Amino acid sequence: MGALSWILYFFAFLCTIMGIITVTEVVPVFANLTGQIWLILGAIFFLSSIPGFIVQGRYEE
Q1: DSSP letter at 25?
Q2: Segment 47-51 long-range contacts (CB within 8 Å, at least 24 positions apart)
């Protein structure tokens, strides 16, 4: 369960970085995509990783 939560957290980080790059239009190739989609996807991944960290913390006690 801990590995899955770390993977989801990593995907959340990548989606957030991608959203920031898209919003600031650093790379013009991604100008057609909206940054809001990437940021919402990052938030979903982040929120889905939280239960895994909670469960992992309970097993370590």
Answers
A1: T
A2: 48/8, 49/5, 49/6, 49/8, 49/9, 49/12, 50/5, 51/5
Give residue 10's pLDDT band: very low, low, confident or very high (50, 70, 90).
Answer: very high
C-alpha 33/C-alpha 24 separation (Å) is 12
Rounded Cα gap, residues 32 and 38, in angstroms = 12
- pTM for the structure as a whole: 0.74
Residue 47 structure tokens = 């929120």
What average pLDDT does range 20-34 have in this prediction? 75
Q: Return d(Cα 28, Cα 43) in angstroms, integer.
A: 24
Between 59 and 3, the higher pLDDT residue: 3
